[in-house]
Amino acid sequence: MFGAAKCWESDLSYNHHQHLKTSDPHSDALAHTYVNLQRYLGDVSFTILARAFFGARPTQKALSHVYFNALPHFLKSYRPFLRAPEIQELAALETALHGAFEAPDVSALTLNDIQKLNLDRKLTFHPSAKCLRFFQNTTSLWSALICEQLPPKPHKLDHVQYVIVWRQGTGGRFRIVGDEEALAFKSSSATEALPYLRNWVEAELVLPPERTGDILEK
């Protein structure tokens, strides 16, 4: 029953210290978070993007995680890349992965606690966990880039792709999930999550109940 979730072998870890240094301070600052976006665009285009991004936010506090989180939104209206939607999606994926890396340490639910879980209550996920929606082959691009391989040609997918991003151990990870698992994740319903719950717990996605009433006493 708990084997219904697929693609766990596709889990990929993320380390934000892998960025490539350049001679431009704007590019270096942004590359700290957007390693693969820098690789995808190349140094020249990435530097132009970094200068435009910083230039649009001169009064905001730079070099903070919250500041860099605005890049995916910025790219939605950045005219040079409007015809390349995979760039915005790459930025969104790296934003989520970096956020997962920076997320606080918390204790996850263990397999021993599954049978005591109150199915009438909502699940509590790791604070870094989120579900992204992609229309381009963004995960294939990211997977090639992180391995420093030539990425495939970008293209629109036949069907929307859902990706769960979270922190496991000390690094951010992501996994492609089906429509039903994405809906179960978004609903946080313990009942709807039953086909996926064991895998989620093993992946340290689910947190212990915040209130004692969430666990049934034996």
Short description:
The chain is 36% helix and 16% strand.
Describe this structure in words.
It is a single chain. The protein is elongated and about 55 Å long. 36% of the residues lie in helices and 16% in strands. Strands 1-5-4-3 form a four-stranded antiparallel sheet. It has a two-stranded antiparallel ribbon with strand order 2-6. It has 218 residues and is of the alpha+beta class.
Task: Give me the number of helical elements.
Answer: 9
Q: Point out poorly predicted stretches.
A: 1-20, 211-218
The portion of residues forming beta strands comes to: 15-25%
Overall geometric form = elongated
Q: Work out the helicity level.
A: 25-40%
Distance between the termini: 24 Å
Strand order of the largest sheet: 1-5-4-3
The biggest beta sheet is recorded as: 4 strands, antiparallel
Q: Give the radius of gyration.
A: 19 Å
Helices, strands, pairings?
Elements: E1 12-14, H1 25-31, H2 35-41, H3 43-55, H4 65-68, H5 71-76, H6 85-101, E2 124-125, E3 130-136, H7 138-146, E4 156-168, E5 171-177, H8 179-187, H9 197-202, E6 206-207
Antiparallel strand pairs: 1-5, 2-6, 3-4, 4-5
Helix pairs in contact: 1-3, 2-3, 2-6, 2-7, 6-7
Please tag this protein with its features.
218 residues, alpha+beta, four-stranded antiparallel β-sheet, two-stranded antiparallel ribbon, 9 helices, 36% helix, disordered N terminus, disordered C terminus
